[in-house]
Write a structure and sequence with these properties.
The complex is a heterodimer.
Chain A (H helix, E strand, L loop, with lengths): L3 E4 L1 E4 L2 E8 L15 H29 L2 H14 L2 H12 L4 H17 L4 H4 L2 H16 L13 E5 L4 H6 L5 E6 L7 H9 L3 E3 L14 E5 L4 E4 L3 H25 L12 E6 L2 H9 L5 E4 L2 H5 L7 H15 L4 E4 L27 H6 L1 H14 L5 E5 L5 H20 L10 E5 L2 H5 L1 H4 L5 E4 L1 H9 L17 H16 L3 E4 L10 H6 L4 E4 L4 H8 L4 H12 L4 H16 L1
Chain B lengths: L1 E6 L8 H12 L4 E6 L2 E4 L3 H6 L7 E7 L3 H13 L7
Antiparallel strand pairs in B: 1-4, 2-3, 2-4
Helix pairs in contact in B: 1-3
Classes of the chains: A alpha/beta, B alpha+beta.
Chain lengths: 576, 89
């Protein structure tokens, strides 16, 4: 038999090889019968609801015993759906129209599920699966049958299904579940979320026809990273995936160890690895991925989601929730960084030919003191008892830093005279994202506590490339020698003045850049939470001396292409 | 009959746990309670009805209560929303 490759959506990373277990839920057939009185049919519904409630209580308790309360809460929602007045009314009116209770339950729950499934927002639309699960449970109880299909999984296998209901997924024996592949579903479906929580590979959205080709025991390669499923793999394919799996699992194991610890170079130099986040939810994610702090807390989301600017209390609550989630880890809060490319409704922008060179970020704040002060007050007040730092974006001159600091000083005086409690020791830093700031680091270092390189903007402004313009996007080269020189200059000047330098641009999480940045003595790397484990692992592969050699060689090259080639070689060597 | 408008600030809007808490709080009152969001109405005691409103962060919703404990109902529901369902924002 020759191998077949199916393509789907990669929903959870990892590679697994094993036999298929095809989950085929019991078909629920509604027998033909004449309806009893509406009261009689309703009584049967009520007793089915009671039984469903008991089943869900048992299910919830068993989930709670081996999983997290969030997953268990799904079944609280199911219990509420069982007794929902909308479902009740929909069933009642069907009974009055002469349907039997089984058909009424099926049709009413289908209709409500379709209504939820048609919602625009993916998160809400995903509740369709819950409604269908509840409808199916009620119908199964009414028919007096039990569905044991999911319990037939009694040996390690890849679970193959059209879709898995929440009830199915929690009933699977985890010790036998190697991974999932489903015909339906997207990245936010229950099975995708569950797979990521359990750390099992999953491919979803394979399409209806795909499953016809798989039967129980079919040998499968499930590649949750690439999004493919290979049926009856040839020996050569199998060999390729086995070695990929071994390498990946060895690296993953090493990464899990390193990501729970502070990042160290091979010879023990401490480097801080933090996360770039925009709200408290991702703070939790950051901690799970091993962030030692937040190198960049974006605050724009507070400003762009409403028709008026967020008030002090709203901002305090938002910042405090991030500080709380990060506990005693440092959090760098970047003050408002918006501009005419994405203006909020309440700020009046003139038409700008060049919004990226226009009225934006600190320039807006220095013109609109009430707006700026509200944010600074909120940060200082929320920071009591936490390690918060304040960072000003888009600084291009010493005057701007002075002006921003003067406003911060006014805010402190105002808080004092209002008798409000606030954090006294909050270090103040700036983003280095204009060539101007990079050239003036020595002067700026006299008046601020730290720096953070914003390499996306620094690259854009240094190379004069708008990367949203497709015709020039290829000229946006983060490893461009001009950008690397500015980075080196910034770090050296700051260190001469005893100030530390972090980086919160994409470059900080880029594998090819990390060894160079280590060699340039960058003190802190901040990146998307998911990039942290691999970055920490990579940092641990280089001694300081080796990293310095790499940086020196990279900086001796004249073009970005040469630097990229050189770094590709360095990484290949490390990965073996 | 009493009506009040309130902005929902929590991250997921009226979804998941906040939606469940909201419906439970509504069920604790006798009054008939309706929620309006962007022209759609929903029964506050129905989790399906509340989910179907698709209330997202920073949406302004109108709550209407009619019955013997209408004031108490509105106070309780508004407080729940303003306290952000006991969660950080």
């Amino acid at each position: 038999m020759s191998e077949i490759t199916l393509k789907g959506i990669p929903a959870s990373e990892g590679i697994v090889i094993g036999p298929a277990f095809c989950h085929r839920p019991l078909q629920l057939e509604i027998p033909a019968r004449s309806p009893g009185s509406v009261q009689d049919e309703m009584r049967r519904f009520q007793s089915a609801c009671d039984q469903a409630g008991q089943e869900l209580e048992v299910l919830k308790a068993s989930v709670l015993a081996r999983s997290d309360p969030e997953t268990a809460a799904i079944f609280d929602a199911h219990k509420m759906m069982v007794t929902d007045p909308m479902l009740y009314d929909a069933i009642q009116s069907r009974l009055e129209a002469g349907q039997i209770i089984e058909t009424a339950v099926r049709d009413a729950s289908d209709e409500l599920a379709a209504m939820l499934g048609g919602m625009e927002d993916e998160l809400f639309a995903a509740r369709e699966a819950d409604m269908r699960d509840v409808g199916r449970r009620l119908l199964r109880i009414l028919l007096g049958v039990s569905d044991t299909s999911i319990e037939k999984l009694q040996a390690p296998a890849v679970v193959v299904a059209h879709d898995l209901t929440p009830s199915d997924t929690v009933s699977l024996r985890s010790e036998f579940t190697l991974g999932f592949c489903t015909a339906a579903g997207g990245l936010t479906s229950h099975v995708a979320i569950l797979a990521r929580t359990l750390g099992l590979p999953a491919v979803v959205g394979l399409g209806k026809k795909a499953l016809d080709q798989i039967s129980d025991g079919t040998k499968l390669v499930l590649d949750g990273t690439g999004g493919s499923v290979i049926l009856d793999p040839e020996p050569a394919t199998l060999g390729r995936y086995e070695s990929m799996r071994e390498k990946a699992s060895a690296r993953l194991a090493a990464m899990q160890v390193t990501s729970s610890k502070n990042a160290l170079t091979a010879d023990g130099r401490r480097v801080e690895v933090g996360a770039n986040i925009g709200d408290s939810d991702s703070a939790g994610e950051a901690v799970r991925y091993g962030a030692e702090g937040v190198g960049l807390l974006r605050t724009e989301f507070l400003y762009l989601q409403n028709t008026r600017p967020p008030d002090e209390a709203q901002q305090m609550a938002a910042y405090k929730s991030v500080f709380d989630a990060m506990r005693d880890r440092p959090v760098i809060v970047r003050t408002l960084d918006i501009g005419g490319d994405k203006p909020p409704a309440y700020l009046k922008f003139d038409a700008e030919l060049n919004p990226f060179l226009g009225w934006r970020a600190i320039r807006i704040c220095l013109d609109d003191h009430p707006l700026f002060k509200t944010q600074l007050r909120a940060i200082l007040r929320a920071a009591v008892g936490h390690r918060a730092l304040i960072m000003f974006p888009m600084i291009s001159s010493v005057e701007e830093l002075r002006a921003a600091k003067a406003i911060l000083a006014e805010v402190r005086v105002e808080l004092d005279s209002a008798g409000l409690d606030y954090a006294r020791e909050v270090p103040v830093g700036i983003m280095v994202e204009t060539p101007g700031a990079a050239m003036l680091t020595d002067f700026l270092a006299l008046e601020c506590d730290f720096f953070s390189l914003g390499t996306n903007d620094l690259t854009q402004y240094t190379l004069a490339v708008d990367r949203t313009n497709e015709r020039v996007a290829k000229l946006f080269q983060p490893l461009h020698p001009a950008v690397l020189r500015l980075i080196k200059r910034t770090i050296d000047a700051a260190h001469q003045h005893g100030k530390w330098v972090g980086m919160c641009g994409e470059l900080a999480g880029m594998q090819k850049a990390i060894p160079i940045l280590l060699g340039l003595s960058l003190d802190e790397f901040s990146m998307a939470p998911r990039s942290i484990p691999e970055a920490k692992w990579l940092i641990g592969q280089f001694s300081d001396a080796r990293a310095r050699e790499i940086a020196e060689e990279a900086l001796s090259k004249a073009t970005a292409a040469e630097i990229e080639d050189f770094m590709a070689g360095v990484l290949d060597e490390i990965r073996g | 009959m009493q009506t009040i408008s309130v902005v929902v600030h929590n991250k997921v809007g009226l979804h998941a746990r906040p939606a469940a808490l909201f419906v439970q709080a509504a069920m604790a009152h006798q009054s008939k309670i309706t929620v309006t969001n962007g022209g759609k109405n929903g029964n506050a005691k129905s989790i399906i009805g509340i989910l179907a409103l698709g209330v997202q962060q920073n949406d302004s919703i109108t709550i209407n209560a009619d019955g013997p404990d209408e004031m108490e109902a509105l106070t309780a529901l508004t407080k729940l929303i303003e306290d952000n369902f006991g969660e950080p924002v």
